[in-house]
Write the structure tokens for this entry.
Amino acid sequence: MPGSRVASRRRYLVCEPRHFAVRYAINPWMRPDRPVDVSLARRQWRTLVDTYRDHGHTVETVKPEPGLPDMVFAANAAVVVEGRVLGSRYLAPQRRPESVPYEAWFKAQGFDVQHPESVCEGEGDLVPAGPWILAGTGFRTTREAHREAQEFFGVPVIGLTLVDPYFYHLDTALFVLDERNIAYFPEAFSPGSREVLARLYPDAVLATREDAMAFGLNSVSDGRHVFVSPGAAHLAGLLADRGYVPVPVDLSEFHKAGGGIKCCTQEIRS
């Protein structure tokens, strides 16, 4: 109900975009011939970090490594559930070295870390949602990785098939609002997956393609505040109507690499 949403404090892991660039193309958004303004990207990223902290959240950082331009997309590096960490095995060879510094960070913090046997791209495709994990496949993370996640975490994993290459990770087409509800773009999913989501979340917030193409589904919610792309004005209105508080944060420079707010944010659930 409007006015009844409650925020919970979160712990996030991020990586400064010191070496951010678009040097290769592994999704439809990436064009190496289009220049990236690294200074602007760093300012946008700093605004995101400051905004999280202003809303009471803890933000920790992993050191960026030279030669890893996509390391800023911390969400892809792992998924953390109840203090257990399933790392990443990237599909693209250019990104595979990113796993090493992230897994080292988690191990140094005392976490139980498992490196997956199958292609698995962290919170990009594995989205903890209350009693289960919503899991995307179709472009990156494999169904075998869904099985690995279920065995490792002991949490039911619900597989969802992505069908639009612009929404190559689950976190570009869906995000969790709170323990009971989500927002998503239906046409990003196969017909059967749409049916599954409709059954699980009959009151979900349904975004338009325009919202999704503006990276509106690559958002982060603390249960009340939704950190969302300012380009997804229609979605922000729907969220406000449901009693959530949209907090616009512009990460448009990262859209050139196919990422946004959630891609830059790894949630540590301990």
